[in-house]
Each structure stands twice: as C-alpha cells, then as structure tokens.
Design goal:
about 190 residues, alpha+beta, 2 domains, 11 strands
Amino acid sequence: MLDLYKDLKPMTAASTYSNGDVPTVVVTDQIGSSLLCFLEHLIPIEDKDYALLTPVDTPVSLFLLKDGEDPELIETITSNEPILSVADVVLQEHDLTLIRSAVTLTVAGELEEPDFDELEDDENNDDDAETYELLVSFRVEDKEYGLYIPLDPFFIVAEIKDGQARLIEGGEFDRIQPVIENEIESREIIDNE
C-alpha cells in the first residue's frame, strides 16, 4: 500500500474514461496469489509500463483487539490461518465473502458507505495515522479480532508486461515509488489548469 498517496483520491470512471468503463487487471505477486484491480493510471518509466491500481473488492486489515489498548495490526497471515475460517463464517452472516488475495485480504459484497462526517469528528489530526473503520469483530480461542476497512485510498503498483500485471515490491518499489508520485503530481497539475 502506498502510504504517501493517502491524500490522493482515486479517479472516478466518468473522469477517467468517457464511455464509463474502467479497465481492470489481475495483479499477481511472487507466490502466485492474485488480486483483481481497477487501473487508475498507466505510467511509462524507463521503457517499462507501470500501473497504479486500486482493488475492485474492499481491502481489509486484520487486527488483534485488546481491552484498553489500541488494536494491533496483524501484518503477516497465511491464507489457511484458522482465524480466517472464523472470519469467513462471520462475514457470511452479513452476505459478505472474504477473499485471500495478493497484497491484502479483501471482502466482496454490498458494504455500507462510511459516514465521513462522523469519522472527521473522531480524527486526532495526526496526518501520518491511517484511518480504519471496524467491519466485523469475532473471537477465536479467547482472543478478539477485528476486520477493519482502511478509509484512505489503497493503491498498488504493478508492472504491466505482455498484458500481465506483476506486483512491485521491496527494493524495486522503493526505487520506482518517488518517480510514480512525481508523475501523478504532474498529471494533477495539468488537469487542474
């Protein structure tokens, strides 16, 4: 996820393409997991095509909940983790489906739109803090967990080659991220003129 893009709003279908169709692409990570994404921007850099993508389904993060403490993000979780089986059952009660995809867990189904006015009142003016909204909570072996929806835009960078999208990670991501940010800022300035 690109934390530096948190103030950048995704383009709407109408603003991106006159016919209302937003292209989608399946991005794959190193272990072969995939994630269906909307193509927000295509950026040619150094004879390669990079894409700025947003997931089609809603990204979610898993947190461990402790009484009296801030929720603790669980950064690494395997797709066969027993916690996710319980999350599956809880989400099915709400007509939602948990998808174990590349980059992040996602949820498919109809979700209520968050009340942004209410969330703005709750924010503590920390520009670096990510904002999340609790989707569901559940207990597994005397521990409480929660699936949270990140409210900041969730962007993914991929290289597009021969019609395939490959997730950009690690050192390659660190090298290409500032170049992509500069290109996006340049495009926004031109669009606003």
